[in-house]
């Protein structure tokens, strides 16, 4: 779908979308449509008892004077409450029904649509972004789609007299490309996306000026990353560690580092997961996917910041060579770990990945993202990702970025007690705690590999990486959660 901006008169055919506030006069664009239909639009709105409530859609066809058009009126809610994120949701909610029709082109009629908080250019750009995010599809393996199941919409035009909408959108489009990159990675089946092929996709980012380094098992052996390697030792696929560097900031300035869990498939290993739903563990690389997508967005928009993304890529399989419960492994940090459950593998991957990241980059700040625990879903459902940190300033920065980006976070506890709960009788720590507080002990485990004084936060995205149902700016499937959050974190704190 191509997106363009235009200032010329509204077309009176095809799909025309016009937003209305619940409590404000209709926009200039709306008045044009009403005049073109000799008042039939106003009558239809009245007859349908349409109030302009947020997200409500009124889909009208065959109105007098615009017989060949489809007019979609969408509620924008109360004018004073309208936010940038509301504009995105509006764009997605309005385009949703049109994507299900055979319309080849659609127009957002936005003349006069603005508020004090959301000026016309931002409204237009954000509406376009929402529509773009909503139109994402992952159809590459559907070879027998009926003609009427294929997306028909080829062109979306944003009709607004505002000059800066296009420039504002150009930057947002780069972020959308990062989100789509992550959604693709998360959606790919595990026979296609495994450590080596994931690393190859990261290599594509070199075209944007990102330096991409891939370590294989031999290099990781040499570095002593036995904790990460232990997770992949039952897999036929070679484990990889990928580092992506975007150095768009001051030369020599310490970077911010994002570290992602990339378990390309998590069977649980010898502590095998139950069969039903195990296919979902193809997206156990959602943290790594978010880091790669964020680097794509940040490099794509040429952010003036030094940012590195490090992802640990493994496949957790049961096998004659697989790691056993009871094994003790030595991490790159030198600390030893008693493996009591091979299904608590993400923390093992991350522990070595965060240690390596600190040794290599001495980052100013480090944030890791991981689909780490089922327990975070019990606590927060799919509404928030869990935020764990002992650094209050970093927590504030991340929560602010969460509010601005629309990738929500909820702060969870990480205390001395959680570190005590993973003490082992035979090694420096064990890889699981008791059932209670499972997300916090998982965070504490990673914290054992964070150096004193290092600013660090952990985000548990097990509940947010995958959407079970459609959302305003995301069809069901891979969510791309974290891309916009990290991009916004960089924009607000590192540029
Ligand atoms: N990848 C899972 C966590 C997960 C669960 C992600 C559901 C997405 C949806 C992780 O590796 C895992 O298996 N965690 C275990 C830890 C337990 C063995 C301590 C869990 O949460 O049950
Ligand atoms: Mn697991
Ligand atoms: Zn896992």
Notes on the structure:
By secondary structure, the protein is an alpha/beta fold. The chain has two domains: 2-160, Leucine Aminopeptidase, subunit E, domain 1; 174-493, Aminopeptidase. The chain contains 15 helices and 19 strands. Strand 3 and strand 4 (66-75) form a beta hairpin. Helix 8 runs antiparallel to helix 10 (346-361), helix 9 packs across helix 15 (483-493) and helix 10 runs parallel beside helix 14 (438-447). The site of zinc ion has 5 residues, from strand 9.
Q: How is the topology of this model organized?
A:
Elements: E1 2-6, E2 14-20, H1 28-36, H2 40-47, E3 57-63, E4 66-75, H3 84-99, E5 105-109, H4 120-134, E6 155-159, H5 165-187, H6 195-203, E7 211-215, H7 217-223, H8 226-232, E8 240-247, E9 256-266, H9 286-300, E10 306-316, E11 328-330, E12 336-338, H10 346-361, E13 365-370, H11 375-380, E14 385-388, H12 392-405, E15 409-411, H13 416-420, E16 429-430, H14 438-447, E17 455-460, E18 466-467, E19 477-478, H15 483-493
Parallel strand pairs: 1-6, 2-4, 2-5, 5-6, 9-10, 9-13, 12-16, 13-17, 14-15
Antiparallel strand pairs: 3-4, 7-8, 8-10, 11-12, 14-17, 18-19
Helix pairs in contact: 3-4, 4-5, 5-9, 8-10, 9-15, 10-14, 12-15
This protein binds ligand BES, manganese (II) ion (MN) and zinc ion.
């Amino acid at each position: 779908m191509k997106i363009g901006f235009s200032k010329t008169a509204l077309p009176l055919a095809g799909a025309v979308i016009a937003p209305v506030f619940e409590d404000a006069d209709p926009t200039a664009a709306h008045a044009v449509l009403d005049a073109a239909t000799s008042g039939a639009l106003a009558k239809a709105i009245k007859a349908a008892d349409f109030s302009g409530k947020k997200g409500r859609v009124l889909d009208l066809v065959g109105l007098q004077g615009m017989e060949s058009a489809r007019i979609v009126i969408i509620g924008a809610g109360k004018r004073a409450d309208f936010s940038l994120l509301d504009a995105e949701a509006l764009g997605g909610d309005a385009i949703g029904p049109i994507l299900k029709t055979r319309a080849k082109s659609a127009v957002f009629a936005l003349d006069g649509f603005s508020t004090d908080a959301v000026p016309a250019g931002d409204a237009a750009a954000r509406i376009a972004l929402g529509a773009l995010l909503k139109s994402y599809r992952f159809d590459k393996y559907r070879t027998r789609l009926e003609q009427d199941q294929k997306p028909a919409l080829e062109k979306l035009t944003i009709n607004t007299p505002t000059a800066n909408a296009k420039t504002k959108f150009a930057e947002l489009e780069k972020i959308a490309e990062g989100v789509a990159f992550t959604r693709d990675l998360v959606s790919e089946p595990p026979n296609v996306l495994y450590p080596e092929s994931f690393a190859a996709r990261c290599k594509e980012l070199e075209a944007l000026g990102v330096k991409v380094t891939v370590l294989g098992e031999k290099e990781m052996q040499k570095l002593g990353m036995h904790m990460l390697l232990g997770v992949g030792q039952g897999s036929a696929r070679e484990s990889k560690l990928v580092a992506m560097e975007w150095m768009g900031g001051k030369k020599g300035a310490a970077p911010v580092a994002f570290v992602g869990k990339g378990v390309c498939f998590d069977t649980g290993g010898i502590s095998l997961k139950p069969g039903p739903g195990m296919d979902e563990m193809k997206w156990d690389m959602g943290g790594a996917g978010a880091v790669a997508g964020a680097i794509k967005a940040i490099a794509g928009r040429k952010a003036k910041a030094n940012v590195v993304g490090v992802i640990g890529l493994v496949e957790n399989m049961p096998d004659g060579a697989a790691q056993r419960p009871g094994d003790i492994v030595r991490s790159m940090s030198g600390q030893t770990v008693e493996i009591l459950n091979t299904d608590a593998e993400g923390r093992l991957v991350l522990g070595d990945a965060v240690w390596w990241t600190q040794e290599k980059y001495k980052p100013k700040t480090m944030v890791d993202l991981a689909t780490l625990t089922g327990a975070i879903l019990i606590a927060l459902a799919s509404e928030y990702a869990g935020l764990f940190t002992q650094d209050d300033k970093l927590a504030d920065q991340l929560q602010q970025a969460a509010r601005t980006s629309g990738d929500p976070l909820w702060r969870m506890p990480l205390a001395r007690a959680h570190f005590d709960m993973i003490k082992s009788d035979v090694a420096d720590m064990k890889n699981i705690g008791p059932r209670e507080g499972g997300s916090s002990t998982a965070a504490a485990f990673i914290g054992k590999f964070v150096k004193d004084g290092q600013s660090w936060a952990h985000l548990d995205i097990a509940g947010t990486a995958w959407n079970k149902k459609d959302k305003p700016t995301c069809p069901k499937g891979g969510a791309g959660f974290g891309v916009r959050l990290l991009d916004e974190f960089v924009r607000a704190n590192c540029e």
